[in-house]
């Protein structure tokens, strides 16, 4: 739904507009995928000219890096909640896999982060994204370490692996229409289409078992 705004003058109004832009970008990406959303589409959805949108975010990519930061924190909160009842490494691997699978937008953003979203952005925007991702992974890694017997750095490595693998596997596990048709017509090929959650759990269990042997 297209929104129409008067010119934002006061700080709170500017913040409201910023949040409206992020909300519109989130809705569009959730509906059609990150790669299919243009800056013009975001501007139209929020009722602004593109020239007004770039006053708040320099580029489309910067909008989605901000959303990626928000998704990192949402994921960390969800994992932390699950870790309260985790009894062993299998529970932790399941917690990481379940929670990230439950955030398809996050997986989509991760799949585009290094290939497109980190391009065409300002240095401050790129720095903020990297600092947020690394800090969140480190904080969550310490919690994962306590739940698994891994060190803090090993826990952070497990968290980073979960995010990296989710970003890599998500596009393959959610094929475009043409490839979906290929799979429908060729079951022998469909058997090789990865399933996101099981693939994540298996990889994370293997990594968690192997990390202590490298100390």
What does the largest sheet look like?
none
How would the global form be characterised? globular
- How many beta-strand elements? 0
Relevant CATH superfamily of the largest domain:
Tetracycline Repressor, domain 2
Could you tell me the mean pLDDT? 94
Provide the helix percentage.
over 70%
How many distinct folded domains? 2
CATH topology (level 3) name of the largest domain? Tetracycline Repressor, domain 2
Question: Nearest-angstrom radius of gyration?
Answer: 19 Å
Return residue spans where pLDDT drops below 50 for at least 5 consecutive residues. Answer: 1-6
Number of helices: 11
What would CATH call the architecture of the largest domain? Orthogonal Bundle
Strand composition percent: under 5%
What's the helix-strand series?
HHHHHHHHHHH
Query: What is the terminal separation in angstroms?
Result: 54 Å
GO molecular function: DNA-binding transcription factor activity; transcription cis-regulatory region binding
Protein name: TetR/AcrR family transcriptional regulator
InterPro entries: Homeodomain-like_sf (IPR009057), HTH-type_TetR-like_transc_reg (IPR050109), HTH_TetR (IPR001647), TetR_C_34 (IPR041483)
DNA-binding region: 38-57
């Amino acid at each position: 739904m297209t929104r129409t705004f008067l010119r934002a003058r006061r700080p709170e109004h500017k913040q409201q507009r910023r949040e409206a832009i992020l909300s519109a970008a989130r809705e569009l990406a959730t509906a059609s995928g990150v790669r299919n959303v243009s800056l013009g589409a975001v501007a139209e959805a929020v009722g602004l000219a593109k020239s007004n949108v770039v006053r708040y975010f320099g580029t489309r990519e910067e909008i989605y890096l901000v959303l990626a930061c928000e998704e990192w924190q949402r994921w960390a909160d969800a994992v932390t909640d699950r870790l309260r009842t985790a009894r062993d490494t299998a529970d932790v691997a399941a917690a990481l896999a379940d929670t990230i699978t439950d955030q398809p937008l996050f997986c989509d953003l991760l799949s585009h982060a290094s290939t497109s979203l980190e391009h065409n952005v300002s240095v401050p925007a790129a720095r903020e994204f990297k600092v947020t991702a690394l800090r969140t992974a480190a904080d969550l890694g310490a919690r994962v370490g306590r739940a698994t017997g891994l060190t803090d750095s090993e826990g952070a490595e497990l968290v980073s692996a979960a995010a990296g693998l989710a970003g890599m596997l998500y596009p393959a596990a959610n094929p475009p229409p043409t490839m979906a048709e290929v799979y429908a017509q060729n079951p022998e090929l469909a058997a090789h289409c990865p399933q996101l959650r099981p693939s994540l759990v298996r990889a994370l269990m293997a990594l968690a078992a192997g990390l202590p042997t490298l100390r």
